[in-house]
């Protein structure tokens, strides 16, 4: 039975969340020796490690990273038509599981040494800047210096809702600038959104890269960015150097995006691609979430392993919200 656009849109949202949860226990392992040691006990299936090996923070296996949580808040906001800024502040703010001493947006450098890993989730740099900007009453709440993968990791709900509509890229940019007001991040996120939209609308396509590059080079393209040419160069690097996956020891853009795109363009299924990127260490979760979104968009739910869905603790709620968002997009 052929998949509908709605099926693929739901698959994109769920694929991103499931892949993020699968990689979460092995997120941010940068030591090659430690990574080798951890993998030796898990191969050939490193996903959903029962005990966290994350050297910075620890969450229960099946929970999301801060990337997956941001995507969830965005999905919930789209489903319920809420104010995204207020929702992010409430979800990650005072009195929540993120409200830990190390995560304090006003914590001064040089203070008492923190023992890592912390017992709880990690509030990253862009979120800390977001809180400071909101508290200061600034109209632009996004961090203008942070260049991490947050935008790419949380775009699936927005692309799923607006795929095929002329305002899709504008909606993605608006959502991501709430926490990241950085032009390179925006350009890279919009390029990622073009890839994901293409898979939602068309399914698997070996020419996806050429299609997106043509869009980025079109002088009449939607939502043009000054850095689109630079993004095009990064995408071509991925295509030209297929061994790029062996060099992923960087969590910031553009490196993490290139690594994620490598998995999307060179591998054949979600679990295979997520496992492959997990074996590279570093920011496994951010790369995995985009990989999961793109493969979910190509295959729908049927291409996302059922055992992975069951081990993602928020899956039933995610599915309900995803179905609601996609239904709203068709009205």
Question: Can you offer a commentary on this structure?
Answer:
Its cofactor is Mg(2+). It comes from Amphiprion ocellaris (Clown anemonefish). Keywords: Magnesium, Metal-binding. The chain is an all-alpha fold. It has one domain (5-103, 122-329): ADP-ribosylglycohydrolase fold (Orthogonal Bundle). Helix content is 56%, strand content 1%. The chain has 16 helices and two strands. The chain has helices at residues 5-23, 32-40, 66-80, 84-92, 125-135, 150-153, 156-162, 168-176, 183-202, 208-217, 228-240, 255-266, 270-278, 284-299, 306-311, 315-329; strands at 57-58, 118-119. A two-stranded parallel ribbon has the order 1-2. α8 (168-176) packs across α9 and α9 (183-202) runs parallel beside α14. It starts with a helix and ends with a helix. 50% of the residues are buried. Residues 243-254 have low confidence and may be disordered.
Short overview:
By secondary structure, this protein is mostly helical. It has 16 helices and two strands.
């Amino acid at each position: 039975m052929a998949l509908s656009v709605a099926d693929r849109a739901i698959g994109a949202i769920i694929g991103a969340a499931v892949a993020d949860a699968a990689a979460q226990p092995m997120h941010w392992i940068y030591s090659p020796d430690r990574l080798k040691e951890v993998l030796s006990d898990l191969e050939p299936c490193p996903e959903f490690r029962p005990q966290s090996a994350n050297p910075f923070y620890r969450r229960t296996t099946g929970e999301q990273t801060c990337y997956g949580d941001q995507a969830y808040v965005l999905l919930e906001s789209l489903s319920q038509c809420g104010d995204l800024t207020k929702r992010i502040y409430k979800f990650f703010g005072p009195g929540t599981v993120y409200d830990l001493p190390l995560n304090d947006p006003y914590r001064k450098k040089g203070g008492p040494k923190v023992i890592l890993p912390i017992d709880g989730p990690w509030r990253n740099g862009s979120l800390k800047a977001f809180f400071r900007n909101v508290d200061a009453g600034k109209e632009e709440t996004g961090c203008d210096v942070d260049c991490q993968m947050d935008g790419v990791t949380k775009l699936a709900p927005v692309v799923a809702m607006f795929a095929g509509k002329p305002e899709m890229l504008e909606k993605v940019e608006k959502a991501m600038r709430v926490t990241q007001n950085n032009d390179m991040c925006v350009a890279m996120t919009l390029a990622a959104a073009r890839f994901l939209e293409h898979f939602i609308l068309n399914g698997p396509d070996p020419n996806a890269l050429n299609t997106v590059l043509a869009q980025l080079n079109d002088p009449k393209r939607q939502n043009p960015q000054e850095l689109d040419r630079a993004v095009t160069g990064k995408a071509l690097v991925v295509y030209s150097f297929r061994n790029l996956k062996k060099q992923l020891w960087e969590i910031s853009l553009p490196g993490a995006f290139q690594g994620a795109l490598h998995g999307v363009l060179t591998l054949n299924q979600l679990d295979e691609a997520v496992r492959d990127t997990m074996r590279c260490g570093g920011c496994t979760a951010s790369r995995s979430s985009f990989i999961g979104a793109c493969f979910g968009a190509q295959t729908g739910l049927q291409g996302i392993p059922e055992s992975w869905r069951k081990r993602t603790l928020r899956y039933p709620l995610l599915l309900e919200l995803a179905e609601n968002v996609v239904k709203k997009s068709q009205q």
